[in-house]
């Protein structure tokens, strides 16, 4: 399935990033006409889809022949690949022989996504990884696996078998060097650079105050009360139960506070419905906990509104590949209080643009400090936006990809 995309140009970002535009054009000169195909599991929901919605059109705008294709698979396949996701991040779950075979069977069918004229194929995450083993590609086609999960402490039984699907890739890209596999034969193929947010997307673009006020009213969010916001999938690693616990600690102290839990039910995550129900039950009848999901018509613009209206952003994940929602909040000048996991650690400088802590009581204390100190919030907010513009924006991600393409092509 080919994903239809709107046109974008690197020139649109010149006011934000200045000379980066010229650097991009210079890097792209030897790559004119290069056929690049990105393949992932879903056209919407989750960070990978959001990144590709911008990255692929930007590649086209500088002369690459770039496409985005999505696999087709039944729910059973995504139940299995969610097990891959969890075990590659360390969960002690067994994957049966029948599940391995079913995974390979679906990847084999989706190998038809490779038409044979590609110069570079970029496979995102575990779901389509085995396509490489079955595709009829040119012998000189270069294959890149972009892994968006934390591979630092995988379930070794699962990794020993799964690694066979990616061992013949030409390059493997991770968010952090600490995620590189320990296999000596693979480490030499690895590189690390972070993903990015698009400041001009619906999720991040500046909004009219009237639209913000109207949207908050529809969602039942009181603009007069402090708002703590968590943007995360309904996933065991996101630990939304702790987010509710932190909110309850703050509420006992302040009395007046709201918690917005913002999420999207993604096509490739059937487990999400189970955790959605569990989190709903845990929240109970507290009317100050607002569930803002695509089931209520909450899309990118509404997420943008909620983040901009937030007093503080909270992130309670216990494992995190990167956490683009951190950069989204920082870009909107909202300080973030989070657990120091994965890519979160490189986005938040403790005491500068937010706070890092493991314990729920400490997270609550930092939020209380920010709620009570407006000047501190503003100072941290400005530093947060500066951090994102320098490191975690679409044009930086694009440059990193271009450098990687030049390297694999020699």
Note the topology.
Elements: H1 14-17, H2 20-28, E1 35-40, H3 47-61, E2 65-70, H4 75-88, H5 97-110, E3 120-124, H6 131-134, E4 142-146, H7 156-166, E5 171-174, H8 184-187, E6 190-192, H9 209-219, E7 227-231, H10 240-254, E8 258-263, H11 271-283, E9 289-293, H12 300-309, E10 312-315, H13 324-331, E11 336-338, H14 344-347, E12 354-356, H15 360-372, H16 374-391, H17 394-408
Parallel strand pairs: 1-2, 1-3, 3-4, 4-5, 5-6, 7-8, 7-10, 8-9, 10-11, 11-12
Helix pairs in contact: 2-17, 3-17, 9-12, 10-15, 13-16
Structural class: alpha/beta
Measure the end-to-end span: 30 Å
Full CATH superfamily name of the largest domain: Glycogen Phosphorylase B
* Model regions low in confidence, pLDDT < 50 over at least 5 residues: none
* Number of discrete domains: 2
| DSSP helix fraction | 40-55%
SSE order: HHEHEHHEHEHEHEHEHEHEHEHEHEHHH
**Which percent range describes the beta-strand content?**
5-15%
Describe this structure in words.
- With 410 residues, the chain is of the alpha/beta class.
- The protein folds into 2 domains: 10-196 and 393-408, Rossmann fold, CATH 3.40.50.2000; 209-391, Rossmann fold (3-Layer(aba) Sandwich).
- Helices cover 44% and strands 13% of the residues.
- The strands form 2 sheets. Strands 2-1-3-4-5-6 form a 6-stranded parallel β-sheet, with helices on one face. It has a 6-stranded parallel β-sheet with strand order 9-8-7-10-11-12, sandwiched between helices.
- Helix 14 (344-347) links the parallel strand 11 (336-338) and strand 12 (354-356).
- Helix 3 crosses helix 17.
- The radius of gyration is 21 Å and the shape is globular.
- The model has no long low-confidence stretch (mean pLDDT 95).
């Amino acid at each position: 399935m080919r994903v239809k995309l709107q046109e974008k140009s690197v020139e649109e970002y010149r006011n934000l990033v200045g000379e980066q535009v010229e650097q991009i054009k210079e890097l792209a000169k030897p790559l004119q006409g290069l056929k690049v195909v990105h393949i992932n599991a879903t056209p919407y929901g989750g960070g990978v889809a959001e990144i590709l919605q911008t990255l692929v059109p930007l590649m086209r705008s500088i002369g690459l022949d770039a496409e985005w294709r999505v696999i087709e698979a039944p729910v059973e396949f995504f139940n299995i690949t969610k097990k891959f996701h969890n075990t590659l991040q360390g969960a002690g779950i067994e994957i049966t022989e029948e599940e391995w075979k079913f995974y390979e069977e679906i990847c084999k069918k989706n190998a038809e996504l490779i038409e044979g004229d590609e110069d570079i194929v970029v496979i995102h995450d575990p779901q389509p990884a085995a396509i490489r083993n079955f595709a009829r590609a040119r012998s000189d086609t270069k294959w890149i696996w972009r892994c968006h999960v934390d591979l630092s402490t995988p379930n070794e039984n699962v990794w020993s078998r799964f690694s066979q699907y990616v061992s013949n890739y030409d390059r493997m890209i991770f968010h952090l060097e600490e995620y590189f596999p320990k296999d000596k034969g693979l480490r030499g193929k690895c590189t690390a650079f972070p993903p990015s947010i698009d400041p001009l997307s619906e999720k991040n673009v500046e909004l009219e105050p009237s639209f913000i006020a109207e949207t908050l009213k529809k969602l039942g969010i009181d603009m007069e009360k402090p708002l703590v916001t968590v943007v995360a999938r309904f996933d065991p690693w996101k630990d939304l139960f702790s987010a509710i616990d932190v909110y309850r600690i703050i509420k006992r102290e302040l009395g007046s506070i709201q918690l917005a839990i913002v999420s999207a039910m993604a096509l490739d995550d059937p487990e999400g419905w189970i955790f959605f129900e569990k989190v709903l039950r845990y929240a109970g009848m507290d009317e100050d906990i607002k569930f803002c999901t695509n089931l209520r018509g909450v899309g990118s613009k509404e997420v943008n509104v909620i983040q901009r209206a937030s007093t503080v952003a909270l992130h309670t994940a216990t494992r995190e590949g990167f956490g683009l929602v951190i950069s989204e909040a920082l870009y909107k000048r909202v300080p973030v209080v989070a657990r120091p996991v994965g890519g979160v650690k490189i986005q938040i400088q403790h005491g500068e643009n937010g706070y890092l802590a493991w314990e729920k009581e400490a997270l609550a204390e930092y939020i209380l400090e920010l709620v009570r100190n407006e000047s501190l919030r503003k100072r941290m907010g400005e530093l947060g936006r500066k951090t994102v513009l320098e490191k975690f924006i679409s044009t930086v991600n694009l440059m990193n990809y271009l450098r990687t393409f030049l390297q694999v092509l020699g």
